[in-house]
Design a protein that fits this description.
406 residues, 10 helices, Aspartate Aminotransferase, domain 2, seven-stranded mixed beta sheet, 14 strands, alpha/beta, Aspartate Aminotransferase, domain 1, three-stranded antiparallel beta sheet, single chain
Length: 406
């Protein structure tokens, strides 16, 4: 980049530059010192460790106000492990509708079609930034979908499209939504998420919530396919109830367990899950206000009611940027995010690799609104530096852009 470009930097900086969409920012004022009481060197089967694992389960139920009869388990493999465990145990009893509108929902669709090889499947696809037509979904069939397209910036707005008297099960990957969005629990039978999203926890631990209808399916349905051990709910034809009491299928990290318990205690102190929803809404509103005034950025999701409140994906709309090749767009966007990373103002806000080139800002409940507001002027600064370089023809001879844009 040409060192002669000298655009004044903003003065105010975010206190926390972590705006990654996963792993996400930790709670305000977090430190390792807060985890000093973790059970180091203890078996996860010991009484103190089992008590803490069970506490995570019970706190999850309480904070989220789950309906009576819903059960919670801590499972291996983060959100991916949780959704795969559910699909391998449940899918195949009836036809499946699968929604495909971001990178992860595409993976689940692929697993249903290619790995589980379910014969009766209807796939509803939409490009990044859009939702499939929910009115076409039949909830008398099983339905597999993500609530929030973490990589696409689009989010399902409500559960009105799901019948209360449905015959099928709704299997929802909600990893970028739980603890950020007030979910319609009664409309959902299988819900999966991970600590490293809204809770800002560390990786590898998945959370699985099951309705009584889902538990009944698991109890009664025996898939013909072999099921890997880490995906098994049953032993001797009966559900392993210990899974819902803190007896994990494989060894969890007790340091990560302590981390999520500390975070849950903080949630209770500041007002519970309702305050998490309010914090997320305030953060998204701050981003919306900035985008509305911006001359260079816009939402990837064009329909207002389907925009993600947490993983906010943004398009660069400037004319000079549109004239670039796809490869050069990626380079220009990376220069913008790279400047902010170098300044330690914002880390990891580049778009997902398979998504359209742009910027992705995490706005979940652990992010402070004041940090987002401090970030916006830096985003404008970084954009102006890169735009000046390109439109002046100072980017490795990109004089054609300078001539075309003026």
């Amino acid at each position: 980049m040409n060192d002669t470009i000298n655009i004044k930097k903003p003065e105010e900086r975010p206190n926390n530059p972590c705006f990654s969409s996963g792993p996400c920012a930790k709670m305000p004022n977090w430190s390792l010192e807060k985890l000093k009481d973790f059970n180091s060197g203890r078996s996860h089967r010991s009484s103190p460790c089992k008590a803490k694992l069970k506490a995570v389960i019970e706190e999850t139920k309480s904070l989220l106000k789950l309906p009576e009869g819903y059960k919670v388990a801590i499972v291996p493999g983060s959100d991916t492990g949780a959704i795969e465990m559910a699909m391998w145990a449940i899918i195949g009893e009836r036809g499946v509708d699968v929604l495909n509108y971001d990178a992860f929902s595409s993976l689940w669709a692929g697993d249903i079609l290619e790995e589980l090889q379910i014969k009766d499947v209807r796939e509803f696809k939409a490009p990044y930034g859009k939702l499939p037509d929910l009115s076409q979904v039949d909830t008398d069939r099983d339905v597999v979908f993500v609530w929030n397209g973490t990589t696409s910036g689009a989010m399902i707005p409500n559960g009105d499209w799901i019948k209360s008297d449905r015959k099928g099960l709704t299997i929802c990957d909600a990893t970028s939504s739980v603890f950020a969005v007030d979910m319609p629990w009664e409309k959902l039978d299988v819900i999966t998420f991970s600590w490293q999203k809204v809770l800002g926890g560390e990786g590898a631990h998945g959370m699985l919530i099951l309705s009584p209808r889902a538990l009944k399916r698991i109890e009664e349905y025996n898939p013909e396919r072999p099921i890997p051990r880490i995906f098994r709910f049953k032993k001797g034809g009966k559900i392993i109830e210990g899974i819902f009491e803190g007896l994990t299928i494989n060894t969890p990290s007790m340091l990560c367990v302590e981390d999520v318990l500390v975070t849950m205690n903080w949630i209770k102190e500041v007002g519970g899950a309702e305050e998490m929803y309010n914090r997320t809404k305030r953060n998204f509103q701050a981003i919306s206000n900035w985008v509305a005034k911006s001359s260079w950025i816009e939402f990837l999701a064009k329909e207002e009611n389907s925009r993600s409140l947490t993983s906010v994906c943004l398009d660069i709309k400037s004319e000079w940027f549109k004239l670039l090749s796809d490869a050069d767009k990626a380079i220009a966007a990376k220069k913008i995010t790279g400047l902010l990373d170098k300044e330690k103002v914002a880390h990891d806000i580049n778009s997902y690799p398979s998504a359209p080139v742009g910027i992705r800002i995490w706005a979940g409940a652990m992010v402070e609104t004041s940090d987002l507001e401090a970030l916006f002027s830096w985003l404008d600064w970084a954009y102006e530096v890169v735009a000046t370089e390109y439109t002046n023809g100072e980017n490795n001879g990109e004089s054609t852009i300078s001539r075309q844009v003026g």
